[in-house]
Amino acid sequence: MNHGTVKQAFIKSLPVMAGYIVLGIGFGILLRTAGYGVLWAFSMSVFIYAGSMQYVGIGLIAGGASIITTMLTTLMVNARHLFYSISMIDRYKSAGNYKPYLIFALTDETYSLLCDGKVPGEADAGRYRFLVSLFNHCYWVTGSVIGSLLGTVIPFSTKGIEFSMTALFVASFTEQWLTDKDHIPALVGIISSLICLLIFGPERFLIPTMLLITLALTIFRRREESAS
Asked: Is the pTM of this model over 0.85?
């Protein structure tokens, strides 16, 4: 494997590392507080790897939720990933053996790093995206395990720790705004979110927002293609 590609992928993933380690630690601590040890933290982070859904999952596991309840909750919490996937179809279709893992590992933050479609130098696109996704996954697993271990020796209040997920979203948005000259997607996201928040309320605005964003960006893309 080309060392240059590994280096570029690692550098690209650094902003997510800072967030995922902290978020993972928070998850591990909360899971330990609920009575589930390091093996649970490791397994959930490796096989579920769903960020906010893992936080929600702690309550589901501790509360003895049914399989149907868990499935419906997961669908609602992670429905936004359907829209991420649609926008990545063209980029992932030629990824070869990397494709299954790329689909599995497409989190919010990984999407924010890869959605611009840029690949450095002569790097293989599929391999580069695979490495970025893998690095991010490793950060999350590492943070979760550290958090679970710390939860056994460092007692402290976990109140408000779930806000770290929101903080990472803000950091990803800011990084994308500063590095990308085209701010139309970001503005579409902000305006769509505000409109749907006012219309549907804080409990139901997420899916309508993603639908509106997808529609708006599709229209913009078609106009750009027509103009070119």
From this structure: no
